[in-house]
Amino acid sequence: MVPSFYSATGAAGWLIMLLAWVALIAMAVWGIKRLFPDRNQTTAPTSPQHHQSENLGPPPTTPGRR
């Protein structure tokens, strides 16, 4: 008679295996969603003031100071 691994694994082993499969599938879905982002998401700023708040130049200088 062939031994059954179903009964040898136990409930804890099957629970760990189930959680591992769920984690693997969740990571695959997350990775695919990161590779192919939703087309409805916008990457552009919502308002022109958003660009004005970004200070990319040198700090302003005041007259008389060196």
Can you describe what's shown?
This protein is mainly alpha-helical and 66 residues long. Helices cover 56% and strands 0% of the residues. It is elongated and about 90 Å long. The relative contact order is 0.06. The chain crosses the membrane at residues 12-32. Keywords: Membrane, Transmembrane, Transmembrane helix. Residues 39-66 are annotated as: Disordered. Residues 39-50 have a biased composition (Polar residues).
Order of helices and strands: HH
Distance between the amino and carboxyl termini: 93 Å
Radius of gyration equals: 28 Å
Tell me roughly what share of residues is in helical segments. Answer: 55-70%
**Rough outline:** elongated
**Mean of pLDDT:** 76
Number of helices: 2
Q: Biggest sheet: strands, sense, closure?
A: none
Number of strands: 0
The portion of residues forming beta strands comes to under 5%
Poorly predicted runs: none
Helix/sheet category: mainly alpha
In short:
The chain is an all-alpha fold and 66 residues long.
Keywords:
66 residues; mainly alpha; 56% helix; elongated; membrane; transmembrane
